[in-house]
From TrEMBL, chain A:
TM region(s), chain numbering: none
Keyword tags: ATP-binding, Nucleotide-binding, Translocase, Transport
PROSITE patterns the record matches: ABC_TRANSPORTER_1, ABC_TRANSPORTER_2
Pfam families membership: ABC_tran (PF00005)
Protein name: Phosphate ABC transporter ATP-binding protein, PhoT family
A GO cellular-component term linked to this record: membrane
One MF annotation (Gene Ontology) recorded for this entry: ATP hydrolysis activity
Keyword Magnesium (UniProt): no
GO process terms (BP): phosphate ion transmembrane transport
Domain ABC transporter: 5-247
From TrEMBL, chain B:
Similarity comment: Belongs to the binding-protein-dependent transport system permease family. CysTW subfamily.
Name by which UniProt lists this protein: Phosphate transport system permease protein
Gene3D superfamilies listed in its UniProt record: MetI-like
Coiled coil: none
Pfam families, sorted: BPD_transp_1
Stored InterPro entries: MetI-like, MetI-like_sf, Phosphate_PstC, Phosphate_Transport_Permease
PANTHER family assigned to the protein according to its UniProt record, in alphabetical order: PHOSPHATE TRANSPORT SYSTEM PERMEASE PROTEIN PST, PHOSPHATE TRANSPORT SYSTEM PERMEASE PROTEIN PSTC
């Protein structure tokens, strides 16, 4: 289920603006990797390049090499929708489909994959909701609108929607930044469970969160506004937070950034 | 200021100034303030220990509230006045009618005794409007989706401008164009349809010419810009977050539109279609020029004939005597009722899904 993600010399542009430059890193299967760094350093851009969501924006493009278990996802012959099915994504703000019920939200991805059998959909929905620690809270109101849930529940609903299609890799772009501490904790617990099955890459501004949930941490930074973001240091989380090799990393995690 | 003795005496309740000022009508305290040379502004003696400043009795807030309320009331007054006028004029004509107003197929209100029926007109109105929507809505939604989700931005803006321009063409131009130039091709199309699809009852035999089909096609072209413009705005408002959610699940462009854009835009599209239907139902001169002005109910949309309530009013008003005008006004009332039913139906459709659409906002 889980796969290795390798980035080699990944550079991404927004039109003429170079957002990240020469990112090289390897993410091992069944681990949680945190991407940290100041705002605008390109960590979200890098994350969005991994499932080819970056190119959705007009004028945006990616150069370099990104492979999943050795397979180039930017290969000309690769179907972009297949890449996105393999690499799921959870966004910063919970974004359940407002017109769909909780159940329909969870199975939206399966329906896109052509699954029609009601029994399969129900089974997968329950499994995904259980994995997202949401089942007990919503099992009696699966027909109600997904947007009627609380923010934390909505985000777990989005996680359920993402893992229902059984991706190999799950990308999370600041999944807790719009949530209260209790919901945040629920999602962090969830990440621990999910890494048994998935490779997880998470962007976060919360360094305690990075320290708590991740096995490895990548620190991104920029020299100054307008410069492309670069990967400064990538190591075991424990090492990054206790004894970073780079001065810049240390300054950032101890709050002396800038 | 709260315990100004004169103020209390004026209010006549003996309570504190703060309490009584709330009970006074807006004008009263303003007059009081004027009379005693007191500007009456809140915070006039801030920090004086005289309690909280009084709520402003009269100001921009109240004035604006009054203005907006007056504007709102005007609508009701106008509608009521029109309704009273229409009913007052229609009733005598309906009384004089010697045939059934609902079922009689013909329009002779100027004769003695007057004979007229609304059936064929109402039927023609609804049939031509529905046909027009049937042709226009799929095209309009296609254009709107293309402009918002497929076309390059600059092309999209340019095309959108052209569509809006189409809406500004006066309907008499569409009518003349339909009658003088478009009637030929539509007659050819009618013959073709009858030859190959004649087994469908609506594609009956000729003579072809000023038919319901011609009227509907012209109507469709007129309705197209409204439905397109509104749908385009609706589709444009789809939250990017939802579109990205669909794409990130591995949706193709069309699947994303189906999953995120169309469901989100549904109430707005229904509203757009209803506005289009409203225009089609009320369209007068284009149909007066393109329909055959007959008074028979027929499902054959190819043969010359057809009529609509509004077109009939335009065609017959000049020649009408008192009863004739009353009869036309009565037909206008029926058109009003049809429009009302259409709008109520649309509201009901939107209302049924409110649980989902409201949480979307």
């Amino acid at each position: 289920m889980a796969k290795r993600v390798e980035a080699a010399n990944v550079t991404a542009y927004y039109g003429g603006f170079k957002a990240i430059e020469n990112i090289n890193l390897t993410v091992e299967p069944k681990t949680v990797t945190a991407l940290i760094g100041p705002s605008g350093c390109g960590k979200s851009t890098f994350l969005r390049s991994i499932n080819r969501m970056h190119e959705v924006l007009p004028g945006a493009r990616v150069e370099g090499n990104l492979t999943i278990d050795g397979q180039d996802i930017y290969d000309r012959d690769v179907d972009v929708t297949a890449v996105r099915r393999m690499i799921g994504m959870v966004f910063q703000r919970p974004n359940p489909f407002p017109t769909m019920s909780i159940f329909e939200n969870v199975v939206a991805g399966l329906r896109l994959n052509g699954v029609r059998r009601k029994s399969i959909l129900e089974e997968s929905a329950e499994k995904a909701l259980r994995s997202a620690n949401l089942w007990d809270e919503v099992k009696d109101r699966l027909g109600k609108p997904g947007a009627g849930l609380s923010g934390g529940q909505q985000q777990r609903l989005c996680i359920a929607r993402t893992i229902a299609v059984e991706p190999q890799v799950v990308l999370m772009d600041e999944p807790c930044s719009a949530l209260d501490p209790i919901s945040t904790l629920a999602i962090e617990d969830l990440m621990f469970q999910l890494k048994d099955k998935f490779t997880i890459i998470i962007v976060t501004h919360n360094m305690q969160q990075a320290a708590r949930v991740s096995d490895r941490t990548a620190f991104f930074s920029i020299e100054k506004t307008g410069d492309p973001g670069r990967l400064i240091e990538y190591d075991n989380t424990q090492k990054i937070f206790s004894n970073p090799a780079q001065k810049k990393t240390e300054d950032y995690i101890t709050g002396r950034f800038g | 200021m709260g315990d100004t003795p004169q103020r209390s005496a004026h209010a006549g309740t003996g309570g504190t100034g703060v309490a009584t000022s709330h009970e006074q009508p807006a004008g009263a305290s303003a007059r009081a303030a004027e009379r005693f040379g007191n500007p009456g502004r809140p915070g006039g003696d801030l920090g004086g220990g005289g309690g909280l400043p009084r709520a402003r009795a009269f100001g921009a807030e109240r004035a604006f509230r009054g203005l907006t309320m007056a504007a709102g009331t005007t609508v009701l007054v106008i509608i009521a006045a029109i309704a009273i006028f229409l009913i007052a004029k229609a009733v005598p004509a309906l009384r004089a009618n010697t045939e059934s107003f609902w079922t009689f197929e013909g329009w002779f209100p100027n004769d003695d005794p007057p004979k007229f029926g609304i059936g064929a007109l109402a039927f023609g109105t609804v049939l031509s409007s529905l046909l027009a929507l049937f042709m226009a809505v799929p095209v309009a939604l296609g254009i709107a989706l293309y402009l918002t989700h497929y076309a390059p931005r600059r092309l999209g803006n340019g095309l959108g401008f052209l569509i809006d321009l189409l809406a500004a063409v006066p309907s008499v131009v569409f009518g003349l164009w339909g009658r003088d130039y478009f009637a030929g091709p539509v007659a050819d199309l009618s013959a073709w349809l009858h030859t190959y699809f004649g087994w469908i009852p609506i594609f009956g035999d000729g003579p072809y010419g000023s038919s319901i089909l011609l009227g509907s096609v012209v109507l469709a072209i007129m309705v197209l810009p409204i439905v397109t413009s509104l749908s385009r705005e609706v589709f444009r408002q789809t939250p990017t977050a939802n579109e990205e959610a669909a794409l990130a699940l591995g949706a193709t462009r069309w699947e994303m539109i189906r999953t995120a854009v169309l469901p989100y835009g549904r109430p707005g599209v229904i509203a757009a279609v209803m506005l289009g239907l409203g225009r089609a139902l009320g369209e007068t001169i284009a149909l007066a020029l393109t329909l055959g002005s007959t008074y028979a109910i027929s499902f054959n949309i190819l043969a010359s004939g057809g009529n609509s309530i509004a077109a009939n009013i335009a065609n017959r008003f000049a020649e009408a005597n008192d009863t004739g005008r009353g009869a036309l006004i009565a037909s206008g009332l029926v058109l009003f009722a049809i429009t009302l039913i259409v709008n109520i139906t649309a509201r009901a459709i939107i209302y049924r899904r409110r649980e989902f659409t409201e949480s979307a906002a």
